[in-house]
Amino acid sequence: MHRMKACLKCVRCGRDYELDQPRYLCDCGGTLDLHRDLSGVDGEELKALWESRWGAKRGVDASGVWRYRELIFDLPPEEIVTRQEGNTRLYPAGKAGEYAGLKHFLLKHEGENPTGSFKDRGMTCGVTAAKFYRARNVACASTGNTSASMASYAAVCGMNSVIFIPEGKIAYGKLAQALAFGGRTLQIRGNFDDAMALVQEVCRELHIYLLNSINPFRIEGQKAIGFEILQQLDWQVPDWFVIPGGNLGNNSALSKGMEELYQLGIIDRIPRIAVIQAEGAAPLAHMWKQHTPFEPVRNPETIATAIKIGNPVSWEKSLRGLKWSNGVVESVSEQEIMDAKAMVDAAGIGAEPASCCSVAGAKKLVDTGVIDPEATVVGILTGNVLKDPDAVIGYHKDELGHLGIRGTYANRPQVIDPTLDAVRAALNL
Ligand SMILES: *Cc1c(COP(=O)(O)O)cnc(C)c1O
Ligand SMILES: [Zn+2]
Q1: CA–CA separation, 421 and 265 (whole Å)
Q2: What pLDDT score does 207 carry?
Q3: Residue 278 has pLDDT above 90, yes or no
Q4: Which of 66, 272, 385, 398 is the most buried (most CB within 10 A)?
Q5: How far apart are CA 35 and CA 33, in angstroms?
Q6: Cα-to-centroid distance, 383 and ligand 1 (Å)
Q7: What residue's CA is closest to ligand 1, atom 1?
């Protein structure tokens, strides 16, 4: 398979830029996409190549991202920075499927990536791009998972990482990882959107490579979630994907990947994509339902900190993908997120709060008749259950009342005397 030539293309005005220099935005202010000319590429040949790499034991072919490198970032293996990310499981949803009212519900667990979230798929590609551009320093603003992932990949290839974290609560597991992996961590007085604006200025002025989801290479890596799901399903296309939306990069990646597979004839049907936002941070859902122009949310609030974003950078890319896939946008309440999470956790699968928007959203879309209960649905679980232990314990101790969340399915820990009788009484035996 010959290497396809790629360039950066503006999502807003269509202008092209060569890849020879780092660039994040078009001169018109629009975000950029990696664009390839797919005409003349043999889809069947590409699929056969990917199948031949399935189960590779080592090297870049063993990565669930770089297995698909022809459509990600086609570099010689020695230039790739990888932790063999991806290769995550696709589970029957069990209890969470019953809860959502779906007969054929699968959960793709991206929390099984090396640092515990799908961000690793984007980051392996983003840090490889940093190396491609000979960068020594990388930076991002993050609600947590991006920084954990960036710090890890930077450490793996000997780069310095600088992390801008918004003031207030950041999930403990994520902050712990960023510090552990040696990221220079700057907690700024302001919210995520302030941190995002600052990091762009810092990278421009101090010549640091920017690894926020504005970075077009991260989106390319994240496309592999969809590629891998389809390969796991022997290229049978599900009716729906349901995916949480914060900065809106991940759903943009999913639809972009599907569009490329469709163009190549690797899939013959277009899956529908449902993007789920938290009610307190739902600018896209608002725009979608009210048919109004895009308007950022000024003070985003949600227990699902990974999607607590009021001014998502990728909203235009997201919208393009939603139109292409005949998708929908829905929002869910804090209670719906945490009850859905209790079901995902009780199914033995487990995921962090933001991830469980997939299940809460699927349930809501089934309840409102948008998704057929007989449909084949794949929900994306974006992060690991251990990322946010406070949310789990708060819910199960029913101590989230101040956030308006009840522990509907609480599994309370119990303190007892160290006697057999006390155990018998506690277990009702
Ligand atoms: C980053 C993240 C999201 C949101 O993804 P976007 O691409 O910003 O929409 C959702 N869940 C988790 C766990 C994340 O880390
Ligand atoms: Zn432009």
Answers
A1: 66
A2: 87
A3: yes
A4: 66
A5: 6
A6: 8
A7: 306
Give the separation between CA 310 and CA 294, rounded to whole angstroms: 11
Which atom from ligand 1 is nearest to the alpha carbon of 382?
A: 13
The mean pLDDT of 92-116, rounded to a whole number, is 98
Nearest ligand atom owner, CA of 115: 1
Q: How far apart, in whole angstroms, are the C-alpha atoms of residue 53 and residue 55?
A: 6
Question: What value does the mean pLDDT take over residues 402-413?
Answer: 96
Average pLDDT over residues 81-94: 98
Give percent above pLDDT 90 in the chain: 91
Span from the CA of 165 to the centroid of ligand 1 (angstroms): 15
Residue 379 has pLDDT above 80, yes or no: yes
Q: How far apart are alpha carbons 108 and 42 in whole angstroms?
A: 28
Q: Above 90 in pLDDT, residue 167?
A: no
Fold (CATH) for 90-115+218-403: Rossmann fold (3.40.50)
CB within 8 Å of 375: residues ≥ 6 apart = 102, 104, 238, 239, 240
Q: How far is CA 174 from the centre of its chain?
A: 15
* Cβ(32)–Cβ(11) below 8 Å: yes
Ligand 1: atom nearest CA of 110 is: 13
Ligand 1-lining residues (CB < 6 angstroms) = 117, 119, 145, 213, 244-250, 306-307, 352, 354-355, 382-383
C-alpha of residue 33 to centroid of ligand 2, in Å: 11
Give dist(CA 79, CA 74) in Å, integer.
10
Name the pLDDT band for 274 (thresholds 50, 70, 90).
very high
pLDDT tens readout for residues 289-345:
999 999 999 999 999 999 999 999 999 999 999 999 999 999 999 999 999 999 999
Burial bucket for residue 292 (CB in 10 Å: 0-12, 13-18, 19+): exposed
Test site for ligand 1: of 31, 110, 118, 165, most ligand atoms within 8 A of the Cβ: 118
Under 8 Å between Cβ of 122 and 218? yes
- Mean pLDDT value across residues 126-136: 97
Task: Say how many Å lie between the CA of residue 337 and the centre of ligand 2.
Answer: 37
